[in-house]
Design goal:
Elements (H helix, E strand, L loop, with lengths): L3 E6 L6 H10 L3 E6 L11 E4 L19 H11 L3 E5 L1 H8 L6 E3 L7 E9 L15 E8 L3 E3 L9 E6 L18 E5 L5 E4 L17 H11 L2
Parallel strand pairs: 1-2, 1-3, 3-4, 4-11
Antiparallel strand pairs: 5-8, 6-7, 6-9, 9-10, 10-11
Length: 227
C-alpha cells in the first residue's frame, strides 16, 4: 500500500524539505503542497505540518497561517479523522486553529532556544508513538522562540504525549528548556488523531547526525496507516 503524506507549505515555511526526506526515509510518498493549492490536500492519507516561520510569525507564531484556506481544509480533514502531525510552527498552527487546546507563548527565558533535548515518552498508545516504549527517553533538537505551552482551563493530562526530561527520564524543572506547563513537549487531541510537538523529529533521522529517534515517529504514523 502506497501511503501519501501531505506537507503544507506556507510563506515562511522552511522545514518542508526535511519533512519530505523524513517521510520518504520512513517508507511513504511525500507530497509538498503550496498553501494556495489547498484542495490537493484532500488527496493525501495523512498530513505533516512542518516548522518554520509562517508569515514571519507576525501577530503570533502560527496565527496567520491558522486562518488560511489550507488550514481550514486541514481542520476539516482532521474532524473527519485524518491523522495530522504538527512540528514546531506546525504545532503553533494547530493550537491557533483550535485543533489542539491551549496556547504556545514566548519561552520563559524570552530567548530563542536551539539545542538537543531529552524527551520522555508519556504515551505509546497513539498512532504517532506506537514504535516507542512508554517511559522511554529519546533525543530530538528544538529550535523555537515561542514554545512554552500554556494549558486551557480543564486541561486533560491524558493528552500529554511527550515531556522534557533529563537523560534518566526525570521530568524536572532543570530539564524544562522553555517553561512549558508540566514540561510538555507534545500533546495529542482528544480524538487522538492530531499530535503537535515543539521538538523536530525530522532533524533526528540518522545516528551520524546526532540521533535517529525522530524517524520512529514517522514510521509509527505510516505503519498505523498501513494496518
Amino acid at each position: 500500500m502506497v501511503v501519501t503524506i501531505g506537507i503544507p507549505v506556507y510563506p515562511g515555511t522552511n522545514c518542508d524539505i526535511d519533512v519530505y526526506k523524513a517521510v520518504k526515509l520512513a517508507g511513504a510518498s511525500p507530497k509538498r503542497i503550496w498553501y494556495k493549492d489547498y484542495k490537493e490536500m484532500r488527496k493525501v492519507d495523512a498530513i505533516v505540518i512542518p516548522g518554520g516561520f509562517s508569515y514571519a510569525d507576525y501577530i503570533r507564531a502560527g496565527a496567520i497561517a491558522a486562518r488560511t484556506k489550507m488550514t481550514e481544509t486541514i481542520k476539516e480533514l482532521a474532524e473527519d479523522g485524518m491523522l495530522v502531525l504538527g512540528i514546531c510552527n506546525g504545532f503553533q498552527v494547530l493550537v491557533e486553529s483550535g485543533m489542539l487546546p491551549g496556547a504556545l507563548t514566548v519561552n520563559k527565558s524570552a530567548r530563542f532556544i536551539c539545542r538537543w533535548v531529552y524527551l520522555k515518552v508519556a504515551r505509546n498508545d497513539t498512532p504517532f508513538t506506537q514504535l516507542y516504549d512508554e517511559g522511554e527517553v529519546i533525543r530530538m533538537p528544538i529550535a523555537h522562540m515561542e514554545g512554552r505551552y500554556i494549558p486551557s482551563r480543564g486541561f486533560n493530562k491524558r493528552l500529554i504525549v511527550l515531556q522534557y526530561a533529563d537523560s534518566c527520564g526525570n521530568v524536572t524543572e532543570d530539564a524544562n528548556p522553555n517553561g512549558s506547563y508540566m514540561n510538555i513537549a507534545g500533546i495529542i487531541s482528544a480524538r487522538e488523531n492530531v499530535l503537535g510537538l515543539m521538538p523536530h523529529p525530522e532533524r533526528a533521522l540518522e545516528d551520524s547526525l546526532g540521533g535517529s529517534d525522530g524517524l520512529r515517529m514517522f514510521k509509527s504514523l505510516i505503519e498505523y496507516l498501513r494496518r
